[in-house]
Specification:
GO molecular function: ABC-type oligopeptide transporter activity; ATP binding; ATP hydrolysis activity
Number of strands: 10
Distance between the termini: 79 Å
Oligomer: single chain
Protein name: Transporter-associated with antigen processing 2 isoform 2
Bound molecules: adenosine-5'-triphosphate
CATH architecture of the largest domain: Up-down Bundle
Organism: Scophthalmus maximus (Turbot)
Radius of gyration: 39 Å
Number of domains: 3
Low-confidence stretches: none
Membrane topology: Multi-pass membrane protein
Subcellular location: Endomembrane system
Mean pLDDT: 81
Structural class: alpha/beta
Length: 720
């Protein structure tokens, strides 16, 4: 304890000594620089000022390093501001007023030193409170670095549209050049009117003004058109790329991501990415070229006033930086809230029948309203931040205008400018001020908009966890399926194993029925056989080869599933039966529909196989949808057919017909999940699943004779 106190006291003494030495060195150098004989000429004077300031800065930094070891970035900034501020002040006074600076006079040197020390400490305090050197700031820098990389990637994606972009940039430059000369000729007209009026000069000034205005309008129109074409082509391309990548993702991905978020990426983020980046580049380039041109014209009119005007730039940059940080944070929160609200709305629309039958309309409207309120609160905060920002920006601009008019009047009186020059200068200045603010804004906004690009790229780059890279496509497939020691838990619920050490053999030409209490993992076996998920342990073999080595298209043609909830897509019945198949004749379609007992009801429809089924097959009954789904599976002539609880929505007649048709394919491996005893009894092998394992296996008679779990299950069904 005593040792720690002693170490603390010694550290404080050490720092105090370092501070006192730094102040002594600084005062010595400061007074020494003021006592030097003033050189003749403005340039020599300015050179001496800046050399002395740099020497002070280096000396102070070295003394601090020697005394304290490592010095913080904050201290570096304080030293830099403290050492360079008198030189900045002197330069401004010398250039603008040609006056000897206050700091130059020996008597005022102490006051000047104190002022620069106070100002540097105040600036450091301001910097610390607004832009702290915290982890957040470091993260911000890293984010900006990432944003730059993303921005370059967006630009590379624009490659097919480079000719359009190039055309846009050419017209943009033309428009800017023409625009730049308009204030110049306005000033000229005022000088002609104010001095000796000469008709020819007046006419030529007006003619040039008209020509430049026309050139700027035509070029601006061409620029806009070309860039919009590039944006729309780009957005389309990115959407297709993103959609393609999304459809390749494993099912677990869709279970962990909200639908609203995916649709937001597809619709809003892709559009934002294309529009904002391209439009921002357009504005950035236009503003940059214009600003540079205008600054050179302003320099021509009065370089002193130009320097004064440019002093506004760092202040604007600082204000913009603070605004961007706050606004960006609110924008992200807003995007998340909007995704939640969209999700609530789309969930209700897609499940409107359930909402209506449970009389939950008011509850849903309230839920949606609550989410909208969150958005509204965020929007108000965003608007307030924007209002404060606009106010500060305007105040800075106005302050600068007042200063410019004051010095402009001095320069006209001293004959350094004409009134026309000042008018041209004012016109340029208001444009340059706006442009500099726009430049600062656009840089920030561009970084924000590439945030949307980042999210889009995140999905485009995502590698599906169930790899679709297999390429096995054997000529002949028998359809023998082996589940080997499978262990599996759903990604959404990794701590709850559904299957454990699960092994099962499905033979060609045989029907296997999976039975068991609800929630024991029957449908999970089907999902694994379809490669929707990858088991954590063990593997599934098809004809002795792991499922993952088969080509994706081949596998899903040879292994077909009919689920308990048939899903149809909007389009005709024919489209739904041939879904995912490139070429399929009408005969094949009709054959499959006959086997599925669907042909008769389809024939009765006015448009037959061309009848539209509506969104999600909403214009058909559940049994009709189920039969079309069976036809869709059968038309592929699969080697392995899986029927997951299909009999629940089929009447007895349909069931019999379908089962008779299925018995016609003697080589097919048939896996049936069923609860109805009539279906189960006919199976060659019945497998009872319990506790994630195969509990019992055998024919109906064998299992009944065992009087085990299967026997109890059947007894219970009979009792029900
Ligand atoms: N996508 C999923 N994410 C997380 N857990 C799931 C998912 N699907 C199913 N489960 C869980 O896995 C277990 C097995 O479900 P499964 O659908 O395979 O049962 P089942 O035997 O087919 O039931 P049923 O006879 O009612 O159709 C259940 O506890 C279920 O809650």
């Amino acid at each position: 304890m005593r040792m720690r106190m002693a170490a603390g006291i010694s550290r404080v003494i050490h720092r105090a000594v370092a501070l006192v030495s730094a102040i002594c060195v600084d005062l010595l150098l400061f007074y020494a620089s003021r006592s030097l004989v003033a050189p003749r000429g403005v340039s020599a004077h300015l050179l001496r000022l800046w050399v002395c300031a740099s020497v002070r800065c280096v000396a102070l930094t070295s003394v601090s390093r020697l005394g304290l070891g490592d010095i913080t970035p904050l201290l570096v900034r304080v030293i830099a501001v403290h050492s360079l501020l008198p030189a900045v002040f002197d330069t401004g006074a010398t250039v603008l007023l040609r006056a000897e600076s206050q700091c130059g006079r020996r008597a005022d040197a102490r006051c000047c030193w104190l002022l620069s020390t106070g100002a540097s400490l105040a600036a450091a305090l301001f910097w610390e409170t607004t832009l702290p050197d915290s982890d957040e700031a470091a993260a911000g820098k890293e984010k900006k670095q990432k944003a730059r990389v993303l921005f370059m990637r967006v630009l590379r994606l624009y490659r097919p549209d480079y000719p359009l972009l190039l055309g846009g940039v050419v017209f943009l430059s033309l428009a800017v050049i023409c625009e730049m000369f308009i204030p110049f000729y306005t000033g000229r007209v005022i000088d002609i009117l104010g001095g000796q009026y000469q008709l020819n000069e007046f006419r030529s000034a007006l003619l040039f003004m008209g020509l430049f205005s026309l050139g700027s309008s035509v070029s601006a129109g061409m620029r806009g058109g070309l860039l919009l074409c590039a944006i729309s082509a780009f957005t389309c391309r990115v959407k297709v790329k993103l959609f393609g990548s999304l459809t390749k993702q494993e099912i677990g991905f869709f279970e962990s991501i909200k639908t609203g978020e995916i649709t937001h990426r597809l619709s809003k983020d892709t559009t934002l990415m294309g529009r904002t980046v391209c439009l921002n580049v357009n504005v950035l380039l236009r503003t940059f070229i214009k600003t540079m041109g205008m600054i050179s014209l302003m320099m021509n009119l009065s370089w002193k006033l130009t320097l004064l005007v440019l002093m506004e730039t760092p202040i604007t940059g600082l204000i913009q930086n603070i605004y961007d940080t706050h606004y960006q944070r609110l924008s992200l929160a807003m995007q998340a809230s909007m995704a939640l609200a969209n999700e609530a709305a789309s969930e209700v629309v897609s499940s409107i029948r359930v909402v209506r039958s449970f009389n939950a309309e008011k509850h849903e409207a309230r839920r949606y309203g609550d989410r909208l309120k969150d958005i509204q609160a965020l929007k108000s905060r965003q608007d307030t931040v924007r209002a404060v920002y606009l106010l500060t920006r305007r105040m800075t601009g106005l302050g600068m205008q007042v200063l410019m008019l004051y010095y402009g009047r001095l320069f006209i009186r001293s004959g350094q400018m004409t009134t026309g020059n000042l008018v041209s200068f004012i016109l340029y200045q208001s444009d340059v001020g706006d442009n500099i603010r726009t430049l600062a804004y656009i840089v920030g906004d561009m970084l924000n908009s590439v945030g949307a690009a980042g999210k889009v790229f995140e999905y485009i780059d995502r590698k599906p966890q169930v790899s679709p890279d297999g390429n096995l496509k054997p000529e002949h497939l028998t359809g023998r399926v082996s589940f080997r020691c499978l262990s599996f838990a759903y990604p959404a619920n990794p701590n709850k194993p559904v299957l454990q050490d699960f092994s099962l053999e499905l033979k060609p030409g045989r029907m296997t029925a999976l039975v068991g209490p609800s929630g024991e993992g029957k449908s999970t076996c089907v999902s694994l056989l379809e490669r929707f998920y990858e088991p954590q342990d063990g593997e599934i073999l098809l004809d002795g080869e792991p499922l993952k080595s088969y080509d994706h298209r081949f596998l899903h043609k040879k292994v077909a599933v009919v689920n308990q909830d048939p899903v149809l897509f909007s389009g005709s019945i024919r489209d739904n039966i041939t879904y995912g198949l490139a070429d399929c004749s009408l005969d094949e379609i009709q054959e499959a529909a006959r086997k599925a007992n669907a042909h008769d009801f389809i024939k009765l429809m006015v448009k037959g196989y061309d009848t539209e089924v509506g969104e999600g097959g909403g214009q058909l009954s559940k049994s009709e949808k189920q039969r079309i789904a069976i036809a869709r599976a059968l038309v592929r002539q699969p080697q392995v057919l899986i029927l997951d609880e299909i009999t629940s929505s089929l009447d007895n007649d349909s069931q019999n017909k379908v089962q008779r048709a299925l018995a016609d394919g003697p080589d097919q491996t048939l896996l049936v999940i069923a609860h109805k005893l009539e279906t189960i009894e006919k199976a060659d092998q019945i497998v009872l699943i319990g506790g994630g394992k195969v509990e019992e296996r055998g024919t109906h008679q064998e299992l009944m004779d065992m009087k085990g779990s299967y026997y109890k299950l059947v007894e219970r069904r009979f009792a029900e």
